Amino acid sequence: MVSLSIFLLLALAGAESTLAHIRGPSSHVLRGLQESGHRRGLVQFQKTRAADAYPEVWVQTPPSKNKPEWTAALKAAVASGVVPDIPVGTLAADGSIKYPAGSKDPCNWTNSKCLGKNDISQAPDGMFVINFDDGPTEASPELYNFLGKNNQAGTHFMIGSNILGYPEYFKQAIQMGNQHIGVHTWSHNLSTTRTNEEMVGELGWTMQVIYDLSGKIPRYWRPPQGDIDNRVRAIAEEIFGLIAVMWNAECGMQRLVHERRRIVRMPWRGTR
Which cofactor(s) are needed, names only (predicted)? Predict the structure, then answer.
């Protein structure tokens, strides 16, 4: 049995049910996503895209693999102070993220549910938005078939390694036409425990494979397990234009809690 996670941005049901997350390609020319001959297309991908063009799946993306455009953008953002000088965190035994003694408050969501000024943490008035995390997996076709039969749109925060591992399932989601794709990093590590360069790779390569297979550039991302601080937020926003989408409630798939402006986290299990 393979599991996915579902997140619902809840307000008043009956309005649009996706995040309008795809931005125009011109906004990322300097980030190196669209060099000449880059896009391979859905059908031709496995035949024309070299396997070693991407980092190893389920392994932290090495900084040496980062594109020069990403590295240059990071260097400029750090030099200008846009990316704050916040130490890399470490995972403690109690599940919290620890920073060196004397560090300023990094606005870490894991520790205090602190939100950045641009984080999305609740649905707009009158909106009901459904989100899915961690795909695509072997359970995804079952989910996509269900969504298709019910004409239900959704936003999918996908892991880059899973997209590379299941390109046919990614293709299915894209070809549905009303499913939107967001970033959930390349290897699903805790983001605040990654260096600046590692975080650039985690986001950049996930955006890269999404663009390669769909021609689309995501606007939103979700940090694995919600682990984010102001350093990571700044990297995502400044280098890639990505806005973090969080959640603020949790319940089981067997019931929906109709509350205003909630983002509800719900487990979903496929039968495959």
Answer: Co(2+)
